[in-house]
Each structure stands twice: as structure tokens, then as C-alpha cells.
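Please produce the structure of this protein holding NAP.
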Amino acid sequence: MNTVVITGASSGIGLETAKILTQNGFHVIGVSRSEENCKRAKEKILSENPNAQITFMQADLMQQREVVKVAESITLYLNNSGNGELYALINNAACIRSWYMTTEEGYEQQFALNHLAGFLLTYKLLPALIKAKGCVIMTGSGSHRGIKVHWDDIMLNRRYNPLIAYKQSKLCNLLFAKGLNDRYAKDGIRAYVVDPGLVNTDIGNKGTGGLVNFVWSLRKKHGVSPDVPAKTYAFLCEQKDRQNGLYYYLCKEINYSKEVTCENANRLFELSERLCGIRYEGKEMVAV
Amino acid sequence: MNVMITGAAGGLGRSLANECGRRGYNLFLTDVNEDGLLCIKQGLERQFNVTVATAACDLTNAESVDQMLAVIDKHQIRFDMLLNVAGMDYEGGFMRREREELVRIVLLNNAATLRITHAILKRRRAGKPFNIVFLSSLASMFPMPLKATYAASKRFLLDLAISLCQELKNENVHVLTICPGGMVTTQKAIHGIEAQGFWGTVTTNPLECVARNAIDRALAGKSIYVPGILNRILFFLGKIIPRSWIAAVIHWRWSGVTEVTGH
Ligand SMILES: NC(=O)c1ccc[n+]([C@@H]2O[C@H](COP(=O)([O-])OP(=O)(O)OC[C@H]3O[C@@H](n4cnc5c(N)ncnc54)[C@H](OP(=O)(O)O)[C@@H]3O)[C@@H](O)[C@H]2O)c1
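Below is the modeled complex.
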């Protein structure tokens, strides 16, 4: 049975994706920050499908040491329960903030969770992914458009704007996916980004306040149900042959920002490696 | 520039450490949270490539402080700036708190701050300007029912700072006191701000701006920094309105708010 790891699988898009993938016969390992929400999500999935192969692991992915710890647990689990292969990793956990807040490392929280956590987790799970010639899927967002990476102040410390921090983190998801493809396509690994569209979840009401909270409460009502984007993840996981596209919406390849270039992807790789204290071995291919 | 920061593993201390790192200063960080110190040290080194030393230390414990000073002396570290950030509060009314909890507020916010300030002043770099920053609070301007001990401890810091400023003026020592409103340092702080509604939001100061401005002002030799226009007005009102009136208003307002922020 193929195993898929989904971060942020305790609610919203991650939870629906876990449901659909377990229904389709995948073994899902969900990762999320709260023991209680993990337990509730597991019960929900099992109540709809008692045969679902579902495991949850608790980790606050905002903290790098917890990312490293959960990656070790996942690797151990994969080795004990099978052949150590990871078929897909879905980096989906993310947050929205109203204010500048930092992680234990002093990194801005949206950048740390929405981008760096996935960057570090993917690195740690890469051997298992390579074994399965697996894929890495990031949950992106249409909001990655119309913005550049603020290279000289990536944590937006000088003038913090929560929306820009979110948009930038989602642009980073695309750059990371592109960088992964450039480095690891030769090893049979493929990275994709899913644009879920506007989805009715509570993401903008968690850990936010004031205007952001208020605006999201109004906005989410126009969103689709999270089982709509979940189908796109299932579509990508089920392709026998890897797709060549990068960015998918409703199971179809769509265009993305012109900022997603080889140069920017390399720059983000280098910076993120430094901020995580790691070094991806794969060499990027020369841009054509 | 060598900077010591107390309470560096969380909240404003961590933001100030970031700000100093960005400016390329060498840092000596202390906090009770040892794991947190290691994380922020790693983060600073990775972001800014600066030298960061850490020492886990309970500043309310004289022995623990002596051990830290012994390390400093062994390496003959001399400082150019001290940022006194370590401080605490326990929420809730006076009689609803444990006796020793109340005492701990004063032990950390006041006694420990005195201890470290004296020790680091003795270890300042000779012949160079030295900056001390005290983290007081907007609460220092008002007697605050339901946060009585905390507000008084912050008043102590404000008065101490103003006196030291005069006393040490001729020794090239500058003293800055920061008096912020609420700051969003933790999830709990967000709940507190939300609970206070409109006033909570408008008196909240952005962490990153407070950190940047605090260092700018310290270097410019300023003595008081109240972030935000509204807070400056409240600070001024605190000077002219009779203190018992203010206490009555605050008590009336906060009796209805179950959870309050770290003002
Ligand atoms: N909703 C939209 O319209 C929309 C649009 C575009 C993109 N997206 C993207 O979709 C993804 C999923 O968001 P969603 O809308 O489904 O929101 P959501 O329901 O809030 O899901 C986020 C998930 O991440 C988990 N999480 C939050 N902080 C975490 C941490 N520090 N460590 C580990 N897990 C953590 C949450 O756990 P809890 O259950 O404990 O909260 C939850 O399971 C995000 O990447 C988001 O950027 C959403």
C-alpha cells in the first residue's frame, strides 16, 4: 500500500484530502500541531470509512526541531511498516497572521510555517521519496501572483504587512517546487503545487485578530467546500506517469507568476538551506 | 558592539535580538528557557552571521547570576549595551493570586533587574559610551487595580531609570525606558487584546517597530520611548489626572474583562 504524508491534515483542505486518499486506498500519515485536533480528525475519517488506513502524528511544524523530530518518526514508521518508501508528501500546513510574530528561531511565522517547514520536512524525507520515486505537493494559492520575493528583507521585518507575508510565502511554495524539479526530476521525483481556489475553511480565523479575522469571516463564505480542491491532490497522486506541469487547479495545469524563475528558485534554495542549516545534495540543472 | 539581552528567548527580547543581529552586533543572550536560547542563537547565526553567546540563567537567583558573571569574566567580555527585558506578570486580582506569585513579580521585574544592571555596568567597556534600556510599560503611568503589583513594579523601573540617567550622565552612560502598550508576543496576548476590544487593538504596538525604534532611540541618547500616538496621549494623561481617579476608571473597565494582556 502506498503511503502519503499530509501536513495540516487535521482540518480544512488537508483533512478532506486525507479522506479522499484513504478512500482511494492510500495509507495516510497526517501531521498536525494539536494532539486533540489530530484525534478528532482521525475519528472523523474512520467514522466515514472504518477501513481507512490513517495514522496521525503531532508536531508543531512552526518549530524546526519538531519538524526534524516528526521526520524521524515518519522515517522510522515507514521502515517498520513497509519498505521505507514514501509515495507522496503533501506540504499543506499553513497559517495566516495579523501581526509580526516570530518562531523560536526568530523567524517570521508565516514564512517559517508556510515555506520553511515544508522545505525542511521534504529534505528530511527525501531518501524515502527517492526510494518510491515519489512526489511532493505544495498547497499554493492564487495569491502568489502580483508580488516579488523581498530578498533584502524576507521576514518583512522593516514594514510588516500580513497579507504580503502570506502572498510571498505562497510564491515561495512555487519556487521551492520548481527548484525541486530542477534538482531531482532525474531521480524520478516530481513536485507540484495545487491552487485550491477560495475555500471555506477557518485558516484566517486561527491565531489572528482584528481586521484580518473579520475580513476572512466574510470572505470564506464565498469559498468552495474543501472537498473540491482535495480532488486535485487525488488526481496528482493517482497519475501512473508523472505530470510535467507545475501548477494545478481543479485537476488542470494552469499558469503561474512570471516570478517563478530558475534564478529565483536557486536563490530561495540557498537562503532556505542557510535558514534551516541543511544542504540539498542534488545539483540544479542549468537554465535553458 | 557587544550587547547583553535578558529575557531573550521570547517576545520583545527575541525581537530585539533579531534587530541587533540585523545591525551586526555581537550578542550575549540570557533567559531561563535554555532550549529557546539555543534556537534563537541558531536563528541569529543563520540569518545574520553574527557572534552569539548564550547563558541560561535564573536572574532571581543570585548564585545563578554569579555563575553567569564568572563565565563573562573568564572570557573578559565587556559590554556596550544592556537590554533589560526579562519580566513577568501573573494575571488576576491581588487576592486571587498566591502570595509567592506576587512576590516573584517584584523579585524578577525589580530585584533581578537591579542585580544584572549593576553587574553589567561594572563590566562595561572602558572609555566608551554605554547604553541601558529598561523595559517598563504604559502601565508604569497608572496605578492599576487587578494588575497592581505589575504596574507598581514597572513604575519602579521608570523612576529608577530616570534617576540613573542623571547619576551616570557624566560617565557617558545613557538610559532609555520603553513604555509600550500591549504587544503581540504570544497567542495568549492575542486573546487578551481581543478581549479588550477596540482599546486593546488601538493600544497594541507592532513588535518589530518597537524593537527597531528602541535601539534607534537608545543610540540617539533618548530617555523615554512611548510607542504609538495614542499611548503617548495616555501617558500624558497619566501625568495630569489624579491617580485615584485613574485607578477608579481602570478598575471599572477591567472588572468586566476576564483576561487582560501584558500591558
Ligand atoms: N482556504 C483557502 O481559501 C485557501 C486558499 C489558498 C490556499 N490555501 C492553503 O491551503 C492550505 C490549508 O489551509 P486550509 O484553508 O485548509 O486551512 P486550515 O483548515 O486552517 O488548515 C491548516 C492546517 O494546518 C494545521 N496547522 C496550523 N498550524 C500548524 C503548525 N504550526 N504545525 C502543524 N500544523 C499546523 C492546522 O491544524 P489545526 O486543525 O490544529 O488548526 C490545520 O490542520 C494552506 O497551505 C493554505 O495556505 C487555502
